[in-house]
């Protein structure tokens, strides 16, 4: 998936066709303003203020204590972006906004907009990464509880569309009772597997700083009846014993190959014979495959934020074989085209 430049008038179409458009200008300033406008509108309450009724700019500005002239410009940007509609001097939410940027929407994404302020700051380090190869460690450096809550809410919003895939395709033995969701944050992905396979229950191991917001989100999502949270550090802690399923969802791209091998060895020790280890992660295409903006931008972003990268199906299979797992099986879903599910059982 990628953005593309779409002309909105005959003159723009002609200028693009004859090669007179300075594409770097269009590719940088307009997406920048659009992204920040969405973030500001969410943070300042514009979308929620329009939930119940259309409002004229003067009323909206008064209710939110905003500058009316500047607000009018923001509303037009959001309209051009497809999030607002103007009728008779009043502004209202477009259908896509009702689905995505207000609480309770079917594709609720306001948490991601909030976390994007932190991501905005992460990208300030891109040039340093390219000069030195040294990325950030966002999980080690985030100390503010609100940052963690925004981060975990953003991950929860993305997980909602992935949870049914994992619930259906992660194999679970009859009678299994314990799933360990490593660094599983809110716990939704593990909870979805548990709901499909009672009496299975999930234990989320999370960094201590992340526990409070994670538990709050699990309660809000109404999954805390099958999910419990416990402190743990997947980089060094033993993972217990007697576990039926271990879930590594969107985790391995934060770790180095050596760390991933070590983690898989500890995961195998924690599993019962025949237990399942499931990996759900963005898949890196083989060398020589055509570039894809969504996949390759994600890989660069993880290199920046965790000093790691995305890995291929061959990488996962090699690690699972090297750490004593049975031959792995994989599944790809059109609903999550960047992701790969690969799972294997502990063989003794």
Overview features:
2 domains, 348 residues, alpha/beta, globular, Rossmann fold, seven-stranded mixed sheet
Protein topology:
Layout: H1 10-17, H2 23-43, H3 46-49, H4 57-64, H5 68-80, E1 84-87, E2 90-93, H6 95-100, H7 110-122, H8 126-132, H9 138-141, H10 145-169, E3 178-182, H11 188-196, E4 201-206, H12 208-220, E5 227-231, E6 243-249, H13 257-270, E7 271-282, H14 293-306, H15 313-322, E8 329-331, E9 339-345
Parallel strand pairs: 3-4, 3-6, 4-5, 6-7
Antiparallel strand pairs: 1-2, 7-9, 8-9
Helix pairs in contact: 2-7, 4-5, 7-10, 10-11, 10-12
How would you describe what is shown here?
- The protein is an alpha/beta fold and 348 residues long.
- The chain has two domains: 10-101, Arc Repressor Mutant, subunit A (Orthogonal Bundle), CATH 1.10.10; 124-345, Rossmann fold (3-Layer(aba) Sandwich), CATH 3.40.50.150.
- Helix content is 49%, strand content 15%.
- The chain is built from 15 helices and nine strands.
- It has a seven-stranded mixed sheet with strand order 5-4-3-6-7-9-8, sandwiched between helices. Strands 1-2 form a two-stranded antiparallel ribbon.
- The longest helix is centred in the middle third of the chain and has 25 residues, at 145-169.
- It is globular and about 70 Å long.
- The model has no long low-confidence stretch (mean pLDDT 92).
